[in-house]
Specification:
This protein is an alpha/beta fold. The chain is built from 9 helices and 12 strands.
Length: about 290
């Protein structure tokens, strides 16, 4: 059975005539007659009683009409669903980000423009974000680094200096700025190796000829804050992620340009998908740089 045959049957059943069905389907009357005839011949059944110009379904035709109403109602629902998704009146945007501070402003802008789109957010380090994009568990990613990879499209969103923060009892606690050389001999609490903030700091320290003394590697921002406040060491943090609190003090590095960046990223093969393109278009209007995949 072909869908066109069932569609012709349904049109005849709902209009009560072959002529009415042809007008509804925008085809010729002989086309409708042929398609219904083919359906009857295929299954060796009679679907309509034909009396002159009058047409009425047989008992089997009534039962088939009941099913066809369900089928074409579901078809209409599917068309509506796809249309809504295409216009972003529904659907879901899955975002993977290296941290809440980098993604919050983007999500707020997107939600304001497309309030009916559900948004889910997962967090992890840079490699975890890229992995989620690669295996299609995320539609867009938000990273804090610049990188080159032909599999991805990456556009800048914002730039943030890296701060050093310490306990209120530390020798830096009464300072606003320090020089890179002053970090020599300090005990560092570092994020995991995949952390962009760590990479930025280590690059600056290497340029200054400093081999940092790493006393702990901690993946959690909250645990690092608690450890710093207890005087276990100092740590680096993006200015966008730093949360002042009792027992903590932050200083800038005056002689080195150490930054993290917020970049929106997607798979190159998916950059023209409606949801992904909408996300990039929205953040282009709120970026402090010049995004545009």
């Amino acid at each position: 059975m072909r869908l066109t045959q069932l569609r012709s049957f349904h049109a005849v059943a709902t209009t009560g005539s072959f002529t009415g069905a042809a007008e509804k389907l925008h085809v010729s009357q002989p086309t409708v007659t042929t398609q219904v005839g083919q359906l009857e011949a295929l299954y060796k059944v009679e679907l309509f009683h034909r009396t002159g110009r009058r047409v009425r379904p047989t008992e089997l035709g009534e039962r088939l009409a009941h099913l066809s109403r369900q089928i074409f109602s579901l078809e209409a629902d599917a068309i509506q669903l796809l249309g809504d998704a295409g216009e972003l009146r529904s659907g879901q945007l899955r975002v993977a980000a290296v941290g809440p501070s980098h993604v919050t402003a983007m999500l707020a802008a997107f939600h304001q423009r497309y309030p009916d789109v559900a948004i889910s957010v997962s967090t992890g380090n840079s490699q975890e974000v890229l992995d989620r994009l690669l295996d299609y568990r995320a539609d867009v990613g938000v990273l804090a680094q610049v990188f080159r990879d032909k599999r991805f499209v990456s556009v800048p969103y914002s730039e943030h200096p890296v701060l050093i923060f310490c306990a209120a009892t530390h020798r830096f606690a009464k300072r606003r700025t320090i020089r890179t050389a002053e970090l020599k001999g300090e005990r560092f609490l570092m994020r995991e190796p995949g952390s962009t903030t760590r990479k930025a700091l280590e690059s600056a320290l290497a340029a200054a000829g400093i081999d940092p003394e790493i006393v702990m590697e901690i993946a959690s921002r909250e645990i690092i804050r608690a450890a710093v406040s207890q005087g276990l060491g100092i740590a680096a943090v993006s200015e966008a992620e730093y949360v002042p609190g009792p027992g903590l003090h932050a200083v800038r590095i005056s002689d080195a340009a150490i930054h993290t960046y917020a970049h929106a990223v997607c798979l190159a093969e998916r950059q023209d998908m409606r949801m992904v393109r909408a996300f990039f278009d929205v953040i282009a209007g709120t970026s402090s740089t010049q995004p545009g995949p």
